[in-house]
Amino acid sequence: MYRMIQSRRLVYYITKNKNNNNTVNTIINKKKCYSSSSSTVSRFSTEEDSFHSSSSSSNFDSESIPPPPPPTPPPSSAAKKKSPFLSLLKFGIFSAFIGATATAGYATYTYTTDQVEELSKEFRESGDKITVEDDASSVEKYKALLYSAAMTVPAKCIDIYLDLRRSIEEKVREFSEPSSDKLLPDMLPQEQMMGIKTVVLDLNETLIYSNWTRERGWRTFKRPGLDIFLLRLAQCCEVVIYTDQMDTYVTPIIDRLNQGSGGAIRFCLSRSATKYQDGKHYRDLSKLNRNPSNVIYISGHALENALQPENCAPIKPWKLEEGDTTLIDLLPFLEFVARQGPAADMRQVLAAYKGCDITTEFTKRQRDMLEKQKQRPARLFGRLN
């Protein structure tokens, strides 16, 4: 009877805790122990208590583990199927957007705003010319409605494109064009009558050179003979500095140059007065408010950064070479031209020196002229004899 009770208890605990192998092994060992020896009731009760405690802890562990989530149901066949009309509509909208973008880009790159407006004028007005008579059939009215809608939408898109392009070009023009159509104030009437020449000078590698080193940072050096050059030039010409640098960089340098030359520089034009084109800042001499025949632009890169090459006098760029005399050698040419007054057109004078070094060629021509002048009195004296 006692063994039967123990067997039933064993079956109960095994079925209740079938996932706990340690518990099963403990129960089997207990059964063997009870069958081999006759222990006392107190020993059985003690082992039974320990068995209950272990079984209760295993039950707590098994109950604390959450159950696995239920499997997601497979998508229905109705969700997998897409409407062919919706796919075709998406493809049509995407194709129209790509085509409109490509057309707008090509028109922007190839034509100006006025050219696009002129070429599309007839197309934009064609939608307004559609008229349908009152006695027309419903089919004709429907066709006219469709045609008007098909022409109106592209025409409105072109109008939007033109308005947007004009607004963008106006904003860009504020940064790319010179700040004013008259960068310099009007010249005095007396100076205009005398035909005073306006000598426009570049700054970097023409009058100065800026160098940066790790030990000393930025340093600015004056070209040899600069103070004498500006002082003598201001006595016969109007001196203007025209550079592509910012005001914060130019102003302190001009103040120092004026201190050394007695205020020879009348005006200074910085980056805001240049024209930004093709990623570069150009000097636009036509905006100086001066007669082009009286303007000469001197720079180490004159033909590269000016829009009027006929007014340019290129000289050798200066990069800290010792013994440079370019500015001093250029003074006789500028003083000679300034004495000619209104009769000397700087564009014609510079065209005569095109492809030559101005200082060297001018010195050679002056020497030849002096030799001819010396020979004239000798010939005249020989004829008198």
Write the layout of secondary structure elements.
Blueprint: H1 2-16, H2 21-36, H3 41-64, H4 77-80, H5 84-110, H6 113-119, H7 121-126, H8 138-176, H9 189-194, E1 197-201, E2 208-213, E3 217-222, H10 226-233, E4 237-242, H11 247-261, E5 267-269, E6 275-277, E7 280-282, E8 295-299, H12 302-305, E9 312-314, H13 326-340, H14 346-352, H15 358-384
Helix pairs in contact: 1-2, 2-3, 10-13, 13-15
Gross morphology is flat
Can you tell me the CATH superfamily of the largest domain? HAD superfamily/HAD-like
Distance between the termini: 176 Å
What kind of oligomer do you see?
Answer: single chain
Query: Do you know the CATH architecture of the largest domain?
Result: 3-Layer(aba) Sandwich
Q: What is the string of helix and strand elements? A: HHHHHHHHHEEEHEHEEEEHEHHH
Structural class: alpha/beta
- Reading side by side through the largest sheet, how are the strands ordered? 5-4-1-8-9
GO cellular component, one term: TIM23 mitochondrial import inner membrane translocase complex
Family: Belongs to the TIM50 family.
Keywords: Membrane, Mitochondrion, Mitochondrion inner membrane, Protein transport, Transit peptide, Translocation, Transmembrane, Transmembrane helix, Transport
InterPro entries: FCP1_dom, HAD-like_sf, HAD_sf, TIM50
